[in-house]
Amino acid sequence: MIDAEPDRGDVVIDEVQRVPELLTVVHSVLESPDTRRFALTGSSARKLRRGGVDLLGGRAFYRTMHPFMAAEAPDFSLDRALAIGLLPLVTRAPDSEEMLEAYAGLYLEQEVQAEGIVRDVGAFARFLEAVSFSHGAQLNVASVARECEVPRRTAAGYVAILQDLLLAFRVPVFRRRARRKTVVHDKLYLFDAGVFRALRPAGPLDSRAETEGPALEGLVAQHLRAWAAYSEGSNRLFFWRTRGGSEIDFVVYGEAGFWAFEVKNSHIAHRSDLRALRAFLADYPEAQAALLYRGANRLLVDDVLCLPMDEFLRGVVPNRPLLDRLPSA
Fold first, then answer.
1. What are phi and psi of 270, to 5 degrees?
2. Looking at the structure, do residues 201 and 283 belong to the same domain, yes or no?
3. For the chain, is the Cβ count within 10 Å smaller at the N or the C terminus?
């Protein structure tokens, strides 16, 4: 097909993991005088990594694509993003809620079945529900295993599957030049706030804060993760938690800068909400810090910036600083 289209410069192969042998063909073309440019997309790296196929080492760049960022959506609504997420498939559907339910309920299970990596799809479905309670929290695999009634080793394998299928990601603890003892377990996030809401069961015994708080934190996480992936240079997302209980939801550290963010699902910024940020800044005065909250006003409280969540998310744009520097006193 390539040889028959000599004037076409770009070749796109979607879901390349379904036929990994195509990578051998791509490799041979790249090694030839042919000047084609390839874009190889996929929703899982599992088969490619474990199938012993040609991974084009040194001949390809790896890039990740993420749900929409607020800056990409002119009609962005924080409340709507918290309810249905920012997946293009969902936001552009005539019935977004129905599409989200179908994606979370049917597509995810079918994708796992298509990969042929889970024997008991029912157990995996229970796992998806159980792991939704770990969204935005430190991952306790043993607890998740008990909840979905599978061995711990099986639950750990399911978590790895979620990551391989790009459906979840871990956020490690920031330990650089640590002055205090920190926790050791990573946090886990589902890749989209809407998918989290669809998988997390809700009923009369569940308060709104139990789902909206983690959804809001996850929405910030997916924006910061997308910003780091799309921006130039090496930048990584962390969280910070001491064994004494002080916690910062997100730390972004890399070539572009050093920032710390605390997320509050509240319309009022209290001084007490800034305690962990002040502790972090005492250890890392080089960082810029902000409290992100649901209020409408930019505030400066004890030299810590408090930003409306909507304003912050709209301002998260690749290759731009995450926070404007405050003028020196």
1. -100, 150
2. yes
3. C
Q: Tell me the whole-structure pTM to 2 decimals.
A: 0.90
Which stretches of 24-154 are assigned E, i.e. beta strand? 37-40, 137-138
Query: Which tokens sit at 14?
Result: 């979607």
Inside any domain, residue 321 = no
327 is a domain residue: no
Q: Is the dihedral of CA 219, 42, 230, 285 positive or negative?
A: positive
What pLDDT digit, counting tens, does each position of 164-187 carry? Answer: 888 899 999 999 888 888 888 999
d(CA 90, CA 58): 35
129 found inside a domain: yes
| Rounded CA separation 30/60 (Å) | 10
Segment 45-68, tens digit of pLDDT: 776 666 555 667 667 788 889 999
Q: Cα 265 to the chain's mean position, in Å?
A: 19
Non-local (6+) Cβ contacts of 18 within 8 A are 47
Same domain, 123 and 172: yes
Query: Does residue 101 have a pLDDT over 70?
Result: yes
- The β-bridge relationship of strands 168-171 and 137-138 is unpaired
Residue 79, CA atoms < 13 Å, CB-side half-sphere = 1
104 shares its domain with 33: no
247, two tokens: 């916690």
Q: Quick one: 89 and 209 in the same domain? A: yes
Report the side by side order of strands in the sheet with 137-138. 137-138, 187-190, 168-171
- Say if residue 297 is in the same domain as residue 165: yes
The beta strands (E) that lie in 255-302 are given as 257-263, 288-293, 299-301
In this structure, the answer to whether residues 5 and 113 fall within a common structural domain is no
User: pLDDT tens across 5-25, in order?
Assistant: 888 899 999 988 888 888 888
